[in-house]
Amino acid sequence: MARLLRLDAGNADPKNSISMTIQRAVPKTVRSSGKNQAPVEQRVGIVGLGLMGQGIAACLLANGHDVMGFDSDPSKHAATVRHAATALAELKRQKLIDVESYKGWRPRLHAASSLADLAGCSLVIECVREDLELKRSIFAELDALVPRRTIIASNTSSLPISLLQEGRVAPGRYIGMHWGEPAQIMRYLEIIPGKQTSKATLRACLRFGISCGKEPAVLKQDIRGFLSNRLMYAMLREACHLVESGIADVETVDQSFRNDIGWWALLAGPFRWMDLTGIPAYAAVMEGLLPELSTGTDVPAMMQRMVKRKALGVANQKGFYPYTKASAAQWEKDWVQFTYDMRKLAERYTPKS
C-alpha cells in the first residue's frame, strides 16, 4: 500500500519553519519483494558523489525517490550512474525490488551542474569528506540557494552537528544523517539532532529513514562520533593496542573478534547480550579489566605507518593484509554478498521488544 510521507511546518521560527514535503509511494521493497512504486514528485539532493554519495543515491533510487546529485568533479555523475546500475540490478537479483521498480530508476537520477540546481529539492544530504570548514562553506552556499523549508542533512561520521549548524539560516533545519555502506543494502542509519535542530526536522528525517527501509537509531543529543563510531573506535584502539603490545598479531585479533563478537552482534547489542548471558559476570570482569584497557588519545603508531605508506586497503591492495587485484576484488564481492545475507538474517531476528 502506498504511504504519503509529508513533513510540514509554518512560520519563521527555526523551531517551526521547517517545511519539507516528500511524497512517495513506499512499497514493500528492500524489506520484502515489493510492488511497483508510484511517481515521486519531490527530489532529494546529494552533495558529494564519492563512495557514500553514490551508495545513498542508489538507496534513494531503489525506494522511489528522485535524486539530484552534485559533485565538483563532473565525472562523478557518470560513476554514480554506473554504481546505481550495478547496485539496483543486484537488488533485483536478490528480489529486494521488483522488475518495474528496476526499470524506472534511470529517469529519476539527475546531474546538477551547480549547487543552485538543488533549489527544488525537499531534502539535501551533504556527503563530502570529513572537513569541518569544507562542510560549513557548502552549507553557507546552500543557505543562499535553497528555500528555508528545505531540510539540510550532513552524512558526517564524527563532526558534531551543533558545530555545523552554527551561524546558519534557519539552523533548526540542519541535522545529521549518518548512513552505512553499502547504503542500498544496510538497514543502518543514525539520525543526530544538533542543539538547534527542531523537533519537526527530527521527526521528518525519522519518517524519511524508515521509508527508505532503514531501522534508524535516533540520538537524544549531539556528541562527536555519535553511537556506532564511538563503539567502533573504542574497539579499534584496543585492537591496535593488543597488536602493538605484542599480545597477538593482526590475524589473531581478527580471528578472535570474528568468532566471538562477530558471532552475536547482529542478533544482540551489548546490553541485550548481557541480558542473555548474565549481567553480574560482566560487572565482575569490568572491575578488574577496565583499568587495564587502552585509554590512549594519540593515533596508534601502526595506523600512522599505514597512512605514511598511503595504504588504502583493498582499494589499492595495500593494507594490514597482502592483496592482489584479484583477491581484493574477491573481498569486495564477498562483502556485498555478505551484507545481503546479513540483511536477510537481521530481518528474521529483528527484536520485537
Automatic annotation (TrEMBL):
UniProt-listed GO biological process terms: fatty acid metabolic process
All copies of domain 3-hydroxyacyl-CoA dehydrogenase C-terminal, residue ranges: 225-323
Residues under site feature: Important for catalytic activity: H178
Keyword flag rRNA-binding: no
Occurrences of domain 3-hydroxyacyl-CoA dehydrogenase NAD binding (ranges): 44-220
SUPFAM superfamilies in the cross-refs: 6-phosphogluconate dehydrogenase C-terminal domain-like, NAD(P)-binding Rossmann-fold domains
UniProt xrefs under InterPro entries: 3-OHacyl-CoA_DH, 3-OHacyl-CoA_DH_CS, 3-OHacyl-CoA_DH_NAD-bd, 3HC_DH_C, 6-PGluconate_DH-like_C_sf, 6PGD_dom2, NAD(P)-bd_dom_sf
Pfam families: 3HCDH, 3HCDH_N
Keywords on record: Oxidoreductase
GO molecular function: NAD+ binding; oxidoreductase activity, acting on the CH-OH group of donors, NAD or NADP as acceptor
Spans through the membrane: none
Similarity remark: Belongs to the 3-hydroxyacyl-CoA dehydrogenase family.
PANTHER family: 3-HYDROXYACYL-COA DEHYDROGENASE FAMILY PROTEIN (PTHR48075), 3-HYDROXYBUTYRYL-COA DEHYDROGENASE (PTHR48075:SF5)
Entry protein name: 3-hydroxybutyryl-CoA dehydrogenase
Organism: Granulicella pectinivorans
Taxon lineage: Bacteria, Pseudomonadati, Acidobacteriota, Terriglobia, Terriglobales
